[in-house]
Amino acid sequence: MIIPLNVVGIHGVGGILGMLVVGLFAAHGHRAVQLTLVVSADVYSSPGSHTILKWIDRAMGLPVRPQEEATGLDTMQHSEGAYS
Q1: What pTM was computed for the model?
Q2: Which of 60, 84, 56 is nearest to 72 (CA)?
């Protein structure tokens, strides 16, 4: 049985919500600082991730074939379906 790692759902959303909730328990006025940090991390990491993916694609190609993407990666690679 293959267990998919829900990276965006757990680490992405959980990390963003965690950072924002920390601002609720901090001293007054720090919620804006937390929001600025979340946006800054996204602005910093998105172009870097895009660049790395482009390098991998040029070097050896991304491992997803068009028919797998059209069918759905959960079904093709993890043998899991979200909808019947």
Answers
A1: 0.59
A2: 84
